[in-house]
Amino acid sequence: MSELVHTADDRGVTTVTLDSPGNRNALSGALVGALTAALTRCGKDDDVRAVLLTHTGNTFCAGADLRDPPHPDALVGLLRQIVELRKPVVARVRGHVRAGGLGLLGACDIAAASAEATFAFTEVRIGVAPAVISLPLLPRTDPRALARYYLTGERFDAAEAVRTGLLTAAGDDVDAVLAPVLDGLRRASPQGLAETKLLLTASVRETFDRDAAELTALSARLFSSPQAREGMTAFLERRDPAWVV
């Protein structure tokens, strides 16, 4: 397994840990590949009842790695894999989440965070749109809240993330929040979990089938645009892009 992702098994729950603190667990091509491989292994292992997706450092995921972004097809494939995995995937967040990292949360079946976690859809601030990550997010979250946070790039807290449906729960101790969840998953039958997840993800899977190709093309077009080049350059240079007034 790549050093960017670690796995550990405990009583039927496999913890998959994003471990790329140098870029705040940003979604590089390498990290997406390593996470995809880890989830594939979990899917094939009959001893894995559920997957717990977590992270090292103070950031769950900072979004796309602007120096080594994954191909949109690879990101779509990862999000679809989480949704279609016949085992529940639970996100455990103890830090910040930005842009593409919110797509990971949206794809997970259950997501919990500590109270100090913060969230933001920052795509508009670098000249692109949250295209691919909308596949799991639009069917599962409050559309009025998404309109505000998609369009402004504002930061919001864990309580607001729960209200909007991005998170299942939040609390001062995220492990205490998740303890009854993991206990429940360990008590559930593998067949029961798989079939129940199929029921719960029906609308999300329909969205992938209908919109994935269009949104992948949109993402590729936007990331290659002049405004995106200016936005990404400004971000890396830690300055405002030219359009800020």
Automatic annotation (TrEMBL):
Listed Pfam families: ECH_1
SUPFAM superfamilies: ClpP/crotonase
Superkingdom to which the source organism belongs: Bacteria
Gene3D superfamilies, per database record: 2-enoyl-CoA Hydratase, Chain A, domain 1, Lyase 2-enoyl-coa Hydratase, Chain A, domain 2
Entry-linked CDD domains: crotonase-like
PANTHER family linked to this entry: ENOYL-COA HYDRATASE, POLYKETIDE BIOSYNTHESIS ENOYL-COA HYDRATASE PKSH-RELATED
Family: Belongs to the enoyl-CoA hydratase/isomerase family.
Protein name: Enoyl-CoA hydratase family protein
Protein's organism: Streptomyces lannensis
Lineage of the species this protein comes from: Bacteria, Bacillati, Actinomycetota, Actinomycetes, Kitasatosporales
